[in-house]
Design goal:
Shape: globular
Distance between the termini: 42 Å
Strand content: 15-25%
Radius of gyration: 20 Å
Structural class: alpha/beta
Length: 378
């Protein structure tokens, strides 16, 4: 029995932003929401208990990486990914498609699937829509994803059209292979920067019928303006009563723009990746904690943040840890960055409920003193 459901609860009066409740077998979460990424069944440097403390809703893990190690059968024999990770909240697994196309120097696409080189040892592997679904069925996540091709940007219209058609055929095959009705299955909309292909991909994916819909093929090298167009071209053809998931997006400006267009779910490795290199997200933009000006700064990383890091540690200490490559520094900044984005979506929900989302978004941009729409300051 499918225990998955989604209910839109409120809509902003001046934008397409909305709030909702998403029910899964392993918990109920509120949208819009940011999902921390635990690629190898772990969010780097962050424990499951700390994920609870920062109020993480859904955790994302990766089918491709878990298939290679430790293997889906080991996780299935452990009782599923929730028990394997000791996580008592919803989990989403992606299909592995993006990794196949981004990590392998060699790949051959045909109608059946993709042949590629294992990036760990060079072995030749073959991943099909049916295999991707089987792996995800065995992993046991609450939400699983269709297997799709994520074409490079830019691609010609003809290549993108052929890719969209193949992804649609793969989506139907994956849905037919899906045999764990406790799991929700999401379809993925592709089409690059082409409005006609985004419309076609969205409408045909909806015809197949899924529990939710993801917008793929963004944040792959295009400008922010092109990305926002891609979101708009896709979302206007997706049903109101299903969750909408923008894949692989984690910058503050892109999240806020996505919410304004009606996106419900986001994920990205960005907050933990930049944390490991000493960059913190904050209410005034990004902070490079390695900067010498923080050497004797004994204030909190972000005075308006409620995370464990900001309550207990100073910029000076965090700078000391990161400059000495201490794992604790990476962990503390990762906790902070994740909590920052989760808190951002929590506050976005409040603003939507109050009918003040535009004002909320503009206030954040104003506080980012070096805001520039093309900068990396977010």
């Amino acid at each position: 029995m499918n225990k998955f459901s989604f209910q839109v609860e409120s809509k902003d009066t001046n934008t397409k932003a909305r709030t909702g409740t998403l029910t899964t077998p392993n918990g109920v979460v509120k949208t819009p929401m940011f999902m921390p990424v635990g690629t190898l069944a772990t969010v780097k440097f962050v424990s499951p208990e700390e994920l609870t403390e920062i109020n993480a809703g859904i955790i994302l893990s990766n089918t491709y990486h878990l298939w290679l190690r430790p293997g889906e059968k080991i996780i299935k024999n452990a009782g599923g990914i929730h028990r394997f990770m000791n996580v008592n909240r919803p989990i989403l697994t992606d299909s592995g498609g993006f990794q196949v196309f981004s990590l392998s120097d060699f790949r051959e696409i045909n109608e059946e699937g993709v042949k590629f080189k294992n990036h760990l040892n060079g072995d030749t592997l073959f991943l099909t829509p049916e295999k991707s679904i089987q792996i995800q069925n065995d992993l046991g996540a609450d939400i699983i994803m269709s297997f799709d091709e994520c074409p490079a940007y830019p691609s010609t219209h003809q290549y993108m059209k052929d890719s969209v058609e193949r992804t649609l055929r793969w989506a139907k095959r994956g849905k037919d292979a899906h045999n764990n009705q406790a799991q929700a299955l999401f379809g993925i909309v592709q089409g690059g920067e082409y409005p006609d292909l985004r419309k076609y991909s969205a409408e045909k994916t909806v015809e197949i019928g899924f529990d939710g819909y993801a917008i793929g093929g963004t944040s792959v090298g295009e400008s922010k303006e092109v990305m926002y167009d891609m979101i708009n071209f896709s979302i206007e053809h997706l049903p109101e009563d299903k969750p909408r998931y923008l894949m692989g997006v984690g910058s503050v400006d892109a999240i806020l723009e996505g919410i304004e267009q009606g996106v419900d779910m986001f994920d990205c490795v960005l907050p933990t990746r930049i944390a490991r290199h000493g960059t913190a997200m904050s209410s005034v933009g990004r902070i490079n904690i390695k900067n010498k000006k923080f050497e004797e700064d004994f204030s909190a990383l972000d005075p308006i943040c409620d995370c464990y890091t900001c309550k207990n540690y100073t910029k000076a200490y965090l700078r000391h840890l990161i400059r000495n490559n201490e794992g604790l520094g990476m962990r503390l900044l990762s906790i902070h960055n994740l909590r920052y984005l989760i808190n951002l979506t929590e506050n976005a929900r409040k603003a939507i409920e109050a009918g003040q989302y535009k004002e909320f978004k503009e206030d954040i941009f104003t506080r980012f003193s070096y805001y520039d729409k093309d900068s990396k300051g977010f």
